[in-house]
Amino acid sequence: MNGDLGWALGVLLRTYRRAAEEVLNGIPGGPRGYQVLASAVQELAGNQGVMATQLGIDRTVLTYLLDDLEAAGLVQRRPDPLDRRSRRVVATERGRAVWRERSAELCRVENHILSGLGGDGAVFRDLLQRAAAHADRLDPSVSACQVVEEIDAQDAAELRRHRVRS
C-alpha cells in the first residue's frame, strides 16, 4: 500500500476513531456531544441556531443532544440577552472539567497515533490541516460528523462484501 493516500488516511481515521470513541465514552452523543460541549466551553456560537450551523448538526437533532447534555449536567441553555427568543448554550463547571479532561486525553491519543513520525508530528498536523482546508473549499462537507458517517457506511458495506465472498 506504499504511496496509497486513501489507505493511509483510512488507517489513521480508523485508529483515531476507535481511540476517540473510547475517550468520549460517557459523554451523551459521543463525538458529536463532545463537539457541542467544546463549542459551549469555548463560547464559539452566539446561540443554539448558530451552533447547529457551525457544527453541521440538524437543529432538531441538536435539541435532543442538548437535552441529554443538560441532563448530564454538562451544559445549560439560557435566554440570549440580545434576543430572548433565542437560547445560548453555556457550559457548566462540570462540563468545563469534563471537556478539559477529555480534550487532554484526545491530545494524548493524537500524540500516540503520530508518535511514529517523531519530531515531524507537528509538521504533519499543519500540512494535514492545510490539505483539509483546501479540500473543504473544493468540496465543502455539511459537517465532520457526516464525513465520518459516510466512511462508516462504506466500511460496513465493504465488510458485508468481504463476508459474502468468504
TrEMBL record:
SMART domains: HTH_MARR
InterPro entries: HTH_MarR-typ, MarR/SlyA-like, WH-like_DNA-bd_sf, WH_DNA-bd_sf
GO molecular function terms attached to this record: DNA-binding transcription factor activity
Residue ranges occupied by any HTH marR-type domain in the UniProt entry: 2-140
Top-level taxon in the UniProt lineage: Bacteria
Gene Ontology process terms (BP): response to stress
Stated name of the protein: MarR family transcriptional regulator
Biological source species: Sphaerisporangium album
Phylogenetic placement of the source organism: Bacteria, Bacillati, Actinomycetota, Actinomycetes, Streptosporangiales
